[in-house]
């Protein structure tokens, strides 16, 4: 079964950078339809940040486009989120997600435990 473990969160000043890591076990990245990073800001619902497909196609939400970059390391079976020019509004718990599209419907979503990112002004 797919397991996800996030790391790399912490406290950083506005304008700084962090790189989040999602270690994937149980399934090769090529066999996971979509890997993604989500975040949940205080008082807000969980939202998508960026995704990367099994073929390497990426998508970034407008709120982070140009500042955040999702990537993967195939030999390490790991997904990253490079976060640059961080802003206080980026403060959130960040989650790694694996979406497995089922043949007979009913997609499976696997979540990591989350990692806290706090950006101070």
Explained architecture:
This protein is mainly β and 121 residues long. Helices cover 0% and strands 54% of the residues. It has no helices and 11 strands. It has strands spanning 3-7, 10-13, 18-25, 34-40, 47-53, 58-60, 68-73, 78-83, 92-100, 108-111, 115-120. Strands 2, 4, 5, 6, 9, 10 and 11 form a 7-stranded mixed sheet that branches. β7 and β8 form a beta hairpin. The model has no long low-confidence stretch (mean pLDDT 97).
Topology:
Elements: E1 3-7, E2 10-13, E3 18-25, E4 34-40, E5 47-53, E6 58-60, E7 68-73, E8 78-83, E9 92-100, E10 108-111, E11 115-120
Parallel strand pairs: 2-11
Antiparallel strand pairs: 1-3, 3-8, 4-5, 4-9, 5-6, 7-8, 9-10, 9-11
Keywords, please?
121 residues, four-stranded antiparallel β-sheet, 54% strand, globular
In short:
0% of the residues lie in helices and 54% in strands.
How helix-rich are the residues, as a percent range?
under 10%
Q: How would you spell out the order of helices and strands?
A: EEEEEEEEEEE
What overall geometry do the principal axes of the alpha carbons give? globular
Unreliably modeled segments: none
Radius of gyration: 14 Å
Which whole number gives the mean pLDDT?
97
Largest sheet: 7 strands, mixed
- How many H/I helices? 0
């Amino acid at each position: 079964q797919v397991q996800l473990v996030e790391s790399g969160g912490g406290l950083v000043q506005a304008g700084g950078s962090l790189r989040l890591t999602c270690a994937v076990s149980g399934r090769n990245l090529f066999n996971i339809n979509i890997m993604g990073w989500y975040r949940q800001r205080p008082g807000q619902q969980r939202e998508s940040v960026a995704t990367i497909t099994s073929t390497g196609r990426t998508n970034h939400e407008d709120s982070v486009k140009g500042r955040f970059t999702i990537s993967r390391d195939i030999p390490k079976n790991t997904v990253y989120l490079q976060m640059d020019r961080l802003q206080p509004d980026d403060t959130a718990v960040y989650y790694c997600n694996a979406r497995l599209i089922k043949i007979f419907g009913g997609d499976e979503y696997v979540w990591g435990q989350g990692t806290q990112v706090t950006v101070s002004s």
